[in-house]
Amino acid sequence: MGSRSNSRPVTVGVLGLGEAGAALASDLSSAGALVRGFDPAPRDAEGVEVVDTAAAAADGADLVLAVTPAAAAREAAESAAPGLTAGQVYADASTGAPALMHELEAVVAPTGAAFADLALLGTVPGRGVRTPALVSGPGADAAVSLLAPLGMPVESLGGETGAASARKLVRSVFMKGLAAAIGESLAAGRAAGCEEWIAGEIEDALVAADADLFRRLVDGSRAHAVRRVDEMAAARAMLVELGVEPRVTSAAEEWLAELALDSRQVTHG
Hints:
The protein has two domains: 149 residues, 3-Layer(aba) Sandwich (Rossmann fold); 101 residues, N-(1-d-carboxylethyl)-l-norvaline Dehydrogenase, domain 2 (Orthogonal Bundle), CATH 1.10.1040. The protein has ten helices and eight strands.
């Protein structure tokens, strides 16, 4: 596993050896890849040859995997560019918007390397290379051929740059929005003296979640928007009285109000 042929293992350059990058780099090494890593801050990762520049990490690598914050993604690509050439794949795994992925592709393309945006769908620490992923862009299929044998469950979405990052951010709207809703509900419970109870209610709902719950949330919100907007208005007022900022509650109220308006327009149209 991890061999591109019988004689030569896959070589991977990893840019960014923070918590996620180091976990991926170490797992790729354990899977049989030769891994070189670079990070602007002095860091080590098990099984990884740490080099002094991004270009050195990229030089001669079959795959260059950039695991940086989105704000540092362009700098990483520009720093790696002198070490890139035709036949290589440059995969960016930052949580950036599709527009950023197109900017990065414009940096990488003149080198001859194939660009790919790699969306990691979950928390990397604890799962490492086993983190599910989507990949898109000109280098998507090549990235799959390199990463899948090393243990990553990765799916190609084809050659459209930004498609993978778009799906990740759409998913983030739900995942981070859910976390925000839970946090606000717990804060309200704490202020109202029932935090332990609401925590149990939330946990039970998540454990029991299924396709029926999904349909009830989607269809029920539309069918009962008029009543539910009043319910959320009452909840918002209560949170204000409790001294809890009703950010998620207010947003839910506004969303339900729009659904209610749409419902009335359909009814009277």
